[in-house]
Amino acid sequence: MSASTKLSNAVKALCFLASVHPEPKTSTEISGFIGVNASKTRKILSMLVKNNIVESTYGPAGGFVIKKKPDEIHLQEIYCAIEDRKAFHMDVTKNRGEQSNYLNIFFIDLFAEIQIEIEDKMRQISIQSILNKINS
Amino acid sequence: MSASTKLSNAVKALCFLASVHPEPKTSTEISGFIGVNASKTRKILSMLVKNNIVESTYGPAGGFVIKKKPDEIHLQEIYCAIEDRKAFHMDVTKNRGEQSNYLNIFFIDLFAEIQIEIEDKMRQISIQSILNKINS
DNA sequence: ATTATTTGTTACACTTACCGTAACAAATAA
DNA sequence: TTATTTGTTACGGTAAGTGTAACAAATAAT
Question: What is the pLDDT of residue B87?
């Protein structure tokens, strides 16, 4: 799954969990909402659990509950939780034996700048702000 | 080749051609500089030719010559020439049968905004400015 | 304790995309 | 006519992504 797809799926799950809080929802229920299968949904949510954004309980009547307040969860935080590598990864240095390495450095710097801008933008968007936008 | 790799390779080729202007360089020579094989180099350059950024001549003593002035070539223009789809593509709507399509719209809008920011940034960078930065 | 249920993780087949390279027609200068 | 170069297509090999299944670990209910 691409980073952006993973991010949008995580946000969908969180919006869903926020709307039913504090009722626990199983991966099967959530997967029906966001449109990916339960196994992959668990994979995404398990990462949100590790980052204390969601709580999970095993066994019957178990499932996932959103842990933080919707206005305290930002996209950048979600993206960091689900993605180890850069979200919108940009490759430069794949070429071998080239004579233009100084240009690689230029692009690495440029793409890093873009990356920072994207993260700044994501930091400004909370789950609550998304819910507000949807309900307006 | 990823969009960002293609872009950086195109820029490398243009920097090389700018530095030897008006001498024509073959795809073999350029490929040695940017570090990809001649066939792929021709593929990239042929798109720059179609967009009037580079001129090509067939036959012996032929090759590629940069056509526009380095300070009149911007990254955004190059990226448009070599890439049909969005450069830093972000996927949202791959899921089937979901109940959260209104959230897809949110992400499409968000990613479009990011895309515009990236393009604005690229519009501010010319081949000449890259050459200046490298030579300083 | 036993059972049923749910999470968390691994595995796997299938498909898709990517990469490097080769090959060849079209064009053109010598 | 020949040699050279571009522009384009094709192809095998490799890597990545997708969807699904399977199962151990955990836990509530009985």
Answer: 47
Per DSSP, what are the bridge partners of residue A25? A64
Q: What residues of A are in contact with residue B16 (Cβ under 8 Å)?
A: 100
Q: What is the DSSP string of A43-88?
A: HHHHHHHHTTSEEEE-STT-EEEE-S-GGG-BHHHHHHHH-SS-TT
Question: Which residues from chain B sit within 8 angstroms of residue A4, using beta carbons?
Answer: 90-92, 107, 111
Domain housing B10: 3-135
Number of domains in chain B: 1
For the stretch B96-120, pLDDT in tens is 556 667 788 888 888 888 888 888 9
| Domain harbouring A46, CATH code | 1.10.10.10
pLDDT at A59 over 50: yes
CB contact under 8 A, A15 and B94: no
**pLDDT tens figures, A18-40:** 999 999 999 999 999 998 999 99
Chain D nucleotides near the protein (CB, 7 A): 3-10, 17-22, 25-29
Per-residue exposure over A69-106, b if at least 16 CB sit within 10 Å of its own CB, e if not:
ebeebbbbbbbebbbeeebbebebeebeebebeebbeb
pLDDT of residue A83: 77
A36 CB and strand C closer than 7 A: no
Closest CA to B83 of B54, B39, B43: B43
In the predicted model, is pLDDT for residue A52 greater than 60? yes
Residue nearest to nucleotide C8 (CA to C1'): A46
